[in-house]
Amino acid sequence: MQIEQARPAEAPTVSAVLTEAAQWLAADGRPLWSAADTGLERVQRDTDAGRYFIARKNADVAGVVRIDLEDPHFWPEIESGSSAFVHKLAVSRQWAGHGVSTALLGFAREHATGLGLQHLRLDCVADRAPLRALYERFGFSLHSEIQKGTTSFARYELPLGRR
Question: In principle, which of 5, 38, 100, 143 could form an S-S bond with 19, CB 3.0–4.6 Å?
Answer without folding.
Answer: 38
